[in-house]
Design a protein that fits this description.
Layout: E1 6-9, H1 13-24, E2 29-32, E3 44-47, H2 49-59, H3 63-70, E4 98-101, H4 102-110, E5 114-116, E6 121-127, E7 130-135, E8 140-143, E9 146-148, H5 155-160, E10 166-168, E11 171-181, H6 182-193, E12 198-203, E13 206-216, E14 219-229, H7 252-258, H8 268-271, H9 274-277, E15 281-285, E16 288-291, H10 294-301, E17 305-307, E18 313-314, H11 322-340, H12 345-370
Parallel strand pairs: 1-2, 1-9, 2-5, 9-17
Antiparallel strand pairs: 3-4, 6-7, 7-8, 10-16, 11-14, 11-15, 12-13, 13-14, 16-18
Helix pairs in contact: 1-4, 1-11, 2-11, 10-12, 11-12
Length: 373
Amino acid sequence: MSQQPVRIIGAGIGGLTLGRCLLKYGIPAVIYDRLPSAALHNYGVTLHASSYIPLVDILGLDEFTFRRRLAVDGSLGGSGNINPKSLIYPGKVSSTSFRAHRGKLEALLREGLDVQWGHSLEEVKDTPSGMILCLQNGHKVESACIIGADGPHSNTRKSLSPDTPSHVLPYVAFNGKRQVERVLFDRVYTPAFQGTSIIERKHGDVVLNIAINGEQGDAVSMNWIFSRPARGSNDTLYKPNRPVSGATDIPEEFFKEIATLHGLSQPFREIFDAEKMRTDRVLHWLMRTVLVKRRELRALADRGVFFMGDSVHAEPILGGQGANSAIIDGIELAKCISACGSGGIASWYESRYPAWENGSSESEEAIAMMHGV
């Protein structure tokens, strides 16, 4: 293809993987992101060998170095190991899966890339000479190849395919982060983790999850998740129609429900303490799925706009494989562009779409199995 840069919207895992792979193939790319600078993303994502082994080759690293560099518990002497027996529903997790620190992964992928921060997309305009990116800082960029990789709330998709719905699954989920003093971590958490980086327990229809995010000075950053099925139309914690900005609005009913979780073993008793959780950074998650229809993708491809990752096929955070799918999309899409140019992406859609459909249905099944539904 010509040396006009590929324009990528979104500097998340998918967009960065695509950019890094294009760099390896000698194809210029520019990545635009709405944030003023790189996000810290101090939490872990589960990676499977099927996605990270090909990525290791692209990055020119060996698997041992890759895992030790990115493991959430690397500074604690671990390698991000996951014991499938510590999970309620292991799903695709195997002995080769591991927990990678998302911030470190994205920093590794960004090396050598042209990332334009503070470039939030306002709209994409179709003109006789090509597509134009209209950015909120007033910049306008014409391009023959635009790739939306800006997540499940993709402004690129909303600008060009506004009728694509997002489906909210009937589950309640809250996520929190806490700094734990190293002394307390060694005494209470280490015996329960037993060399793994994530543990789960079931309490009725509630799933409780605790994971290591990393070490910060004399403290260890921990991540927790509380999730359960929605309990009918009167469930005060199930708010499928809340705005995106409402993720930080945590109702008092949540803390009251946490206070009813009696008989927990350590470290679940330590983490799921209603009063301590009030001082945590807490987010109310919605389990969303999105899948753009094939005919929409074909029509947009004819105009030089393409999608990858969860901007086109979002899976719920729980039970989903979003990070792995985004990595595979980035690797395979870069191969396609290198071999066939942007004109080959339409056929790439046809080869990947069945996997996207399966990923959506499998993630819904996984979250149901996890909660015993």
